[in-house]
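User: Please fill in residues for this 193-position structure.
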């Protein structure tokens, strides 16, 4: 597994900040995406930071450090696929960092598997790719971290995005049920370790 990929650590409930602080103390490169949320109570409102992806912290570390990660307080597991820790490409982490660091309103969003893929052409998140949605006359770019099945949405000016040519379609036919499913192709598979 290349060191350009990140691992996803699943934390115990409400332990994301504690686990991230312990990773920093152990000199691990890590990333906890935090966003500002406003809650309104009666006649006042309160601002606080919350994880964009509750229960998850991204950590960069090879196989030699997996045990050290797993024995850190606050962690439940490393997200795995096929018995091996799942790797998140650096480009997805950078995309999340860029939208979180802007002054745009960022919020968790339900994960999407299909839609129009777009690239932002102008502004502070130029070059970031995602799915364009419209909600109450507001355009939003949905950025997905596929391995987690999680997404985040950020408001964008719909005139500042360009459509990316359609990804390859994969058509599957289940001969037992006569059911056809059409899916857009996903990201390329990770190289074997």
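Assistant: Residues filled in for all 193 positions:
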């Amino acid at each position: 597994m290349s060191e350009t990929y990140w691992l996803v650590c699943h934390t115990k409930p409400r332990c994301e900040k504690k686990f991230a602080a312990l990773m920093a103390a152990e000199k691990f490169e890590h990333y906890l995406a935090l966003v500002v949320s406003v809650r309104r109570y009666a006649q006042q409102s309160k601002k606080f930071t919350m994880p964009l992806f509750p229960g998850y912290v991204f950590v960069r570390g090879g196989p030699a450090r997996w045990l050290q990660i797993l024995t850190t307080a606050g962690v439940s597991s490393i997200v795995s696929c096929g018995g091996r820790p799942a790797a998140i490409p650096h480009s997805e982490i950078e995309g999340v960092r860029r939208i979180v660091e802007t002054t745009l309103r960022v919020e968790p969003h339900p994960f999407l598997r299909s839609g129009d893929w777009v690239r932002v052409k102008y502004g502070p998140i130029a070059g970031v790719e995602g799915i364009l949605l419209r909600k109450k006359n507001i355009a939003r770019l949905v950025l997905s971290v596929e391995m987690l099945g999680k997404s985040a949405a950020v408001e964008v000016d719909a005139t500042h995005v360009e459509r990316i040519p359609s990804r390859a379609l994969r058509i599957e036919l289940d001969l037992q049920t006569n059911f056809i499913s059409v899916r857009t192709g996903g990201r390329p598979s990770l190289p074997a370790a």
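For context: Confidence is low (pLDDT under 50) at residues 168-193.
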